[in-house]
Amino acid sequence: MQAPFPKKELLSPAGNYESFLAAVENGADAVYLAGVSFGARAYAENFTNEQLKKVIALGHLYGVKVYVTMNTMIKEKEVESFLQQVSFLYQNGVDAILMQDIGMICLCREMFPELEIHASTQVNCSNEQTLRILEKIGVKRVVFPREMSLDTIKSIKTSLEKEIFIHGALCVSYSGNCLLSFLNGGRSANRGECAGACRLAYTLLDGRQKIRQGYLLSMKELYTAPSFEQIKESDVLSLKIEGRMKSPSYVAKVTQYYRDLLDKKNPTPQDLDELKTLFYREFTKGHLLGSDDFINEKYSNHLGLFIGNVEKITPQKIWIRLQKDLYQEDGIRFQKSRKGMIVNFLYDEDGKLVSKIEKGHLACVKNTLHLSLKDEVYKTSSKFLEKKLLKAKRKKIPIQMFFKAHVGSQVTLTIIDNEQRKVKVSGRVVESAKTSCVSKEKIESLLKRLKETPFEAAQIFYEMDPSIFISLGEINQLRRDAIQKLIDERMKIEKRPINQSISFPKNNERLRKQMTALVRDESSIKKALEKNFDRIYVADKALYQKYASLKNIYYAVLRNQFEAEKIAKTWSQELRENSYLGYALNVANSYSVYYLSKLGAKSIMLSVELSSSEQEQLLKAVLNRFGYLNIEMIVKGKPNAMVIKGNVLKLKENKVYQLKNEKNNLYNVFYKEGLTTVLSNDSMDRIHEIPKWFSLGVCSFCQIFEE
């Protein structure tokens, strides 16, 4: 008989303290959040160190785990402050830290041996070979990419805990492999600064011919509720909700919604309406549940809940026939007109000022927008809903209380909580009642006075003589003392060891300079062969197989896709003897270079997001700390701006098109072998810097041949 899967964990987001409380109060088992640095949502409000201490302590008190995201690409100059922050969290009892930087994962596992590390979705862990490496370096959990299907995730054998996204915003590109925001304006998605370049309007061109225009890369919101039983029956442990940039009321509602699904309570149609009111771009089941309906080309922002149609317009008033209730202070948008307003004044069909109008009736609002078009109306916010959601009662922890009172012995109160923690307090010696005795009913009413505490008395047991006297004040004091002792026990932080004596071997053997090429088509292979490149990385699997007999040809697994191995980070097991790691691994510090070399990589390409001075700082650190290692740099060509699973733009295979943004920047784009690739709009050229980089220890220099 197969052992049952462990209880599912509902993991909610928090971008600020109010959102953290909303998650806890509405049923989250764990909350993920970030400090002011190193989290992949740099523009969320986030948490100061004092707030982090507070929420970690509150999490321990309420039995809710707190995971801190430190999952950005870490530059050399940031390593010291990164480690200081990890040390702070470690010593304050954080339950886990999410990371993407392989160097920091390895270093932190050595420095903080009892720290639990989760591999962020930015690592893009999507094949068993990569997972074996993460197991080897001590990672506890993996957050699977949103491109993977549930069936594929279930089929993977690993000792790592499995975590997936079940709701919220989707990235169109493979996580960790998007440079579009950085290329558009210097804001790196790999550093938590994403400007949402995929949410902008684009024109798809075939030469000079316009094929179509719209929000061509803007993904719908992931919504898994219709197939939630499949998720519940899987071996996935943690179910993650996206939304650290969302409001506390959104966090409250979406946490409550999936808590009900986990607890076998069916959400109502009104629950779904409330979800759509709070945030909605249309829904998709995503790759996770086998959908290929991802893109909303018409709208890229919050669409809201459809509530009715404009029936009549005058210069002063707008009449709306409602299909959903409308409240004063609701935000509404007229969809075709793209105009919105807050309903500060709401009138019924008789012109009476009211606070609510129910569906089926006619509602009237002032025409402050100069609306002239009969239109569809959507609700995009609701003060009434926000107030309702944020009134939720604080989560209560069930406890058992054991009251013992025998004449001639001290009265005692013992409490056992839901995690089997046990505390006991004693009072004065119990006396026989001389006049009136204290009743069990009175004792119970005093013990149940837990309103201002995190606890509720699930059961109270008594062992007491029939006629005793104990003052009511003493019973109250026993309860207060026992509860405080339990709070202290739940919030206690165990001291954990820190290893400050890590040594690194140094390699003093100078490496030979090599020229390499990354090619995407057959003509580029021929050019690279003519120029006698030392290594040629072929990004097309069929082309690689055609030329594989040549000794300097290598398959360029650029990212880490399990299904058909379309894209990978080049460390899969069967390619281990030729593991040349590409720029998509986001290597930005000396420790990543060292630990990847130690794991067997033959060459490690640096991130293309590093400036010349940042590259120099990294290289000097490698030489000083580790000696000569196999470092590779791109010196010419257009790197990938995005790699997207599937044919989201509906392109003909092996044909190059262009995407044009609102600034008239052009990006070559093509579909090949199940992937859509968007290239950078600018070609870099640093060939003249090769002598400088070689003097700083770089041994391989790569030219990308454009499509």
Quick structural summary:
The protein is of the alpha/beta class. The chain has 18 helices and 40 strands. The strands form 8 sheets. The protein has an 8-stranded parallel barrel, surrounded by 4 helices. Strands 29, 30, 31, 32, 33, 34, 39 and 40 form an 8-stranded mixed beta sheet that branches. A 6-stranded antiparallel beta sheet has the order 9-8-36-37-38-35, with no helix packed on it.
Provide a descriptive summary of the structure in words.
The protein has 707 residues and is of the alpha/beta class. The protein folds into 4 domains: 9-170 and 220-262, TIM Barrel (Alpha-Beta Barrel), CATH 3.20.20; 305-389, Translation factors (Elongation Factor Tu (Ef-tu), domain 3, Beta Barrel), CATH 2.40.30.10; 397-491, no CATH class; 514-638 and 683-704. The chain has 18 helices and 40 strands. Strands 1-2-3-4-5-6-7-11 form an 8-stranded parallel β-barrel, surrounded by 4 helices. Helix 4 (102-111) packs across helix 16 and helix 9 packs across helix 11. The radius of gyration is 30 Å and the shape is flat. The two termini are 54 Å apart. The model is unreliable at 560-576 (pLDDT under 50).
What labels describe this entry?
TIM Barrel, eight-stranded mixed beta sheet, 707 residues, 25% helix, alpha/beta, eight-stranded parallel β-barrel, 4 domains
Give the helices and strands, then pairings:
Blueprint: E1 9-13, H1 17-25, E2 30-33, H2 49-62, E3 65-69, H3 79-91, E4 96-99, H4 102-111, E5 117-119, H5 128-136, E6 141-143, H6 150-155, E7 161-168, H7 180-185, E8 202-206, E9 209-214, E10 221-223, H8 228-232, E11 238-241, H9 248-262, H10 269-278, E12 283-284, E13 305-313, E14 317-322, E15 326-327, E16 330-334, E17 339-342, E18 346-347, E19 353-354, E20 356-357, E21 362-366, E22 376-382, H11 383-389, E23 397-405, E24 410-417, E25 422-429, E26 431-432, H12 440-447, E27 455-464, E28 468-469, H13 472-491, E29 514-519, H14 522-530, E30 535-538, H15 541-547, E31 553-555, E32 580-581, H16 590-598, E33 603-605, H17 612-626, E34 631-637, E35 640-645, E36 657-660, E37 666-672, E38 675-679, E39 684-685, H18 690-695, E40 700-704
Parallel strand pairs: 1-2, 1-11, 2-3, 3-4, 4-5, 5-6, 6-7, 7-11, 10-12, 23-27, 29-30, 29-40, 30-31, 32-33, 33-34, 34-40
Antiparallel strand pairs: 7-10, 8-9, 8-36, 13-14, 13-22, 14-21, 15-20, 16-17, 16-22, 18-19, 23-24, 24-25, 26-28, 34-39, 35-38, 36-37, 37-38
Helix pairs in contact: 1-9, 4-16, 9-10, 9-11, 16-17
